[in-house]
Specification:
Elements lengths: L2 H12 L4 H14 L5 H8 L16 H12 L3 H11 L2 H8 L9 H13 L5 H14 L3 H11 L9 H11 L6 H11 L2 H17 L13 E4 L3 H8 L2 E6 L3 E8 L2 E5 L11 H10 L4 E10 L10 H4 L8 H7 L2 E11 L2 E2 L5 H11 L6 E3 L2 E4 L2 H13 L4 E6 L9 E8 L11 E9 L12 E8 L4 E8 L5 H11 L3 E2 L6 E2 L6 E3 L4 E5 L2 E5 L12 E5 L2 E3 L14 H16 L1
Parallel strand pairs: 1-11, 6-8, 14-16
Antiparallel strand pairs: 2-9, 2-10, 3-4, 3-5, 5-6, 6-7, 10-11, 12-13, 12-17, 12-18, 13-14, 15-17, 18-21, 19-20
């Protein structure tokens, strides 16, 4: 397929905010694609060169793109800058300045040239990147240049989430029933391009052969929630009760001396945790393994665990060694997914736990998460109270005979957090989908309130649930403005469902944690909206902390959870 043909599909996707139209466009694109190109097409549609866990970035700023455009269009950089000021979009700037023509690049060639730019490093790399991008743009039409420029800056923003790709792949073969099989494979390897390539080349038979592999992160299992220990035992019977730590969730992959770590977002984070890497190398008694747990900063003198705000400081590129000395980490392992050629994801929890404990040699960094087995609600409640007193989030109950539900939210894992007296004492994670400039004193910061949404798993969309205007300091509001303006849009994002019209629409990218008095019914928000047009809303929401860098948009609370919490509130009030 020619890259120019792909940009025609980009134009269609860019012009729609309707989910069904997006499915139709993508399924047509996939039907037209070959197995040679399909992986590259999917990566490009999602604004990336490879899955996030590969850690590949173009590494070019607006300034460098302007220089490349200047060379490609044979115009002064000043001319590019002036055009950019008028359009506000370097994609449209490229479209206006580049001459028509070019040889009509194949997708494979365009993709490979973008990869060359991403892999260019070392002395003189900046000039070389500019030269490579300039040469690429010279060989494209103005329309192709528009999307290459947006892609390079990470601003393609076509609104294509992973579930949308999986649905469109199934529809490309005219069979929505293929979706679960495709999703199962994706949950095990986290690589949509690889799934699609296999699907086109070998059909579902090839897709069914996907299995756990060290080096390919497994999409992490998620918890459902229940309001009481009695409800938990009623739901799953005798259960393993683990402490719920307030840290950074990490999936560790060990292949002899090669250690890789991945975040909740499946981003490569190995460099952030040198002490954990060393401990895994020295004290994990398995040549190959995949395990999961939470990393927390702690006080070496007292053993006290520090709050999340301290631990999250590790999410940086520089100064890790100094930070490791000031705030060393402890890793609490709670899941074993693979060990020495054995896939443990299908094994019962209690078997996974036993094997996990057996392969961790005693050391000061890695230890199994606290756990006990009980069918007594009172025991759970008492442990929960002590855990909260110690600064932990609460507890997680796990079904003893359950497999590891990769990529799924299920009642195999149930978290218990406070919610009582009809008030919302638990926190809610919302995705920011827009902001209001604010009035009065707030106007000088540029951000007065954020439009928050929760995730609807059924429609792969974000539905609004709150307008968050308090909880941030003045410095944080100023910082928010800088960060959010980088993902600002001129129109509502295709994955956002909102009855409100913020001053600035945003790409769903950042998550914040909020607390509120309770959940109420509201015609102003779309989360759980019924036939009468009434949805659910957070009453008096307040931000807790700053942006959650460890969470992706889909990690926000779900519409289903909001409704469940509301239903529990109502029961408590009645009783």
């Amino acid at each position: 397929m020619k890259f120019s043909r792909l940009t025609e599909y980009f134009e269609e996707l860019d012009a729609t905010t309707k989910r069904l139209e997006m499915f139709d466009i993508l399924s047509r694109l996939f039907r037209e694609s070959s197995s040679k190109d399909i992986d590259k097409i999917i990566y490009l549609c999602q604004g990336q060169l490879l899955p996030a866990f590969k850690g590949i970035e173009i590494g070019m700023s607006e300034k460098l793109l302007i220089k490349a455009l200047s060379e490609a269009a044979s115009v002064p950089t000043k001319k590019v800058e002036e055009t950019f000021k008028k359009t506000g979009d370097l994609g449209e700037t490229a479209e206006g300045l580049l001459k028509e023509g070019g040889e009509g690049l194949a997708i494979e060639k365009a993709y490979n040239e973008l990869m060359d730019i991403a892999y260019t490093a070392g002395t003189g790399s900046v000039e070389k990147k500019i030269s490579l991008l300039s040469n690429l743009l010279k060989g494209t039409s103005s329309k192709e240049g528009k999307y290459i420029a947006r892609f390079v800056l990470g601003r393609l923003r076509l609104g294509i989430g992973d579930p949308t790709v999986l649905e469109a792949l199934a529809l490309s073969k005219g069979d929505r029933g293929l979706r679960p099989g495709l999703e199962r494979a994706y949950n095990l390897c986290s690589d949509l391009g690889l799934i699609a390539k296999t699907f086109l080349a070998k059909g579902m038979e090839g897709v069914r052969k996907f299995h756990v592999q060290v080096g390919y992160p497994i999409r992490m299992a998620l918890c459902e929630r229940l309001p009481s220990s009695e409800d938990i035992i009623s739901k799953i019977g005798k259960a393993a009760i683990e402490a719920k730590y307030d840290g950074l969730r990490i999936q560790i992959h060990k292949d002899k001396h090669n250690i890789e770590m991945f975040s909740r977002n499946l981003e490569r984070t190995t460099h952030m945790f040198p002490e954990i890497k060393e401990a895994v190398t020295s004290h994990l008694q398995a040549k190959k393994a995949i395990l999961e747990g939470e990393a927390l900063a702690y006080n070496e003198a007292t053993g006290e665990l520090f709050p999340f705000q301290i631990t999250i400081q590790r999410k940086r590129k520089h100064g890790i060694e100094e930070l490791a000395k000031e705030y060393p980490l402890k890793f609490f392992a709670f899941e074993l997914l693979y060990a020495d050629d054995e896939d443990y994801t299908e094994r019962p929890y209690i078997e996974r736990r036993k094997k996990l404990e057996s392969i961790i040699r005693k050391n000061p960094v890695i230890e199994p998460a606290e756990m006990f087995v009980t069918d007594n609600p009172q025991n759970i409640y008492e442990y929960f109270e002590k855990a909260v007193e110690r600064g932990l989030e609460g507890v997680v109950a796990k079904r003893l005979d359950a497999p590891y539900s990769a990529g799924a939210r299920s009642f195999n894992w149930i978290k218990l957090k406070r919610s009582y007296r009809g008030e919302l004492a638990d926190t809610i994670d919302v995705c920011i989908v827009g902001y209001f400039r604010g009035k009065g004193a707030r106007a000088r910061f540029g951000v007065g309130a954020l439009l928050g949404a929760v995730y609807d798993e059924k429609t792969d969309a974000f539905k609004t649930v709150s307008k968050v205007g308090s909880g941030f300091t003045e410095d944080e509001l100023a910082e928010l403005k800088k960060i959010l303006d980088k993902v600002a849009l001129t129109h509502r994002h295709p994955r956002v469902d909102s009855a409100m019209e913020p001053d600035i629409w945003l790409e769903p990218k950042y998550v914040i944690t909020v607390t509120a008095d309770e959940i109420t019914r509201s015609p102003s928000h779309t989360a759980g909206r019924d036939k009468e047009g009434v949805g659910y809303a957070l009453r008096f929401p307040r931000a807790v902390g700053f942006l959650r860098g460890d969470k992706k948009p889909e990690d926000a609370n779900t519409v289903k959870e909001i409704i469940e919490i509301f239903d529990h509130q109502r029961k408590v009030k009645v009783s």
